[in-house]
Amino acid sequence: MVLGLSLPLLLAGGAEAARAGEIGAFGAWYAMTSGEGGEKLCYAISGPQVSLGKIPDRGEVGLMVTHLDGGTVRDQVSVALGFEPSKSRPTKIKVDKGGNINMRLTDGDRVWIREASLDSKLVAQMKKGDNLVVTGLSSKGVASQDTFSLEGFTKAYEAISEACGVK
Q: How far apart are CA 128 and CA 141, in angstroms?
């Protein structure tokens, strides 16, 4: 599992963002890089268009697709939920009216898909889709639903792929 820069800080333009290099903005998505050489991380990030669920003190929410330079890690999808997710029920992610994919790996408020093949499948759906929906449950039992626009995702994805040498 790759832990890149803090997505909430990137979305808020915090100190961590100063160390990141912006490739460009593409619709609802930003393409960024961080680090260099074999440690270079390339990622596309976006915030939700709509967030439902009344979770007290919820932090920043964001969706990220990550590559490591040279493609040793590619198409890794993660979500910063802004709250600690339930350990007993997976967070679910889907594109448009497609089927849900479970995100079972957690670290703090961030969730990942366990199987790399499902990451690649999801990214392929994202390139063709209009919206992505993340449905979660907090550790305190409060439900959330975040909807992300996929406008500009394909161009942001192509930019990070080129920046990290992923074909």
A: 33
Supply the pLDDT for residue 63.
98
Single-letter amino acid, residue 51 = S
Q: Is domain 7-163 classified as CATH 2.40.50.100? A: no
CA-CA distance, 138 to 70, in Å (whole number)? 36
CA-closest candidate to residue 20, choices 77, 117, 31, 126: 31
Q: For strand 41-46 and strand 62-68, is the pairing parallel, antiparallel, or unpaired?
A: antiparallel
- What pLDDT does residue 19 have? 54
Contact between residue 105 and residue 79 where contact means Cβ atoms under 8 Å apart: no
8 or 106: whose pLDDT is higher? Answer: 106
Helix (H, G, I), strand (E, B) or coil at 52: strand
Q: How far is the C-alpha of 109 from the C-alpha of 4, rounded, in Å? A: 14
25 close to 78: Cβ distance less than 8 angstroms: no
pLDDT tens digit string along 40-88? 899 999 999 999 999 989 999 999 999 988 778 899 999 999 999 999 9
DSSP 3-state of 123: helix
Contact 83, 128 (CB under 8 A): no
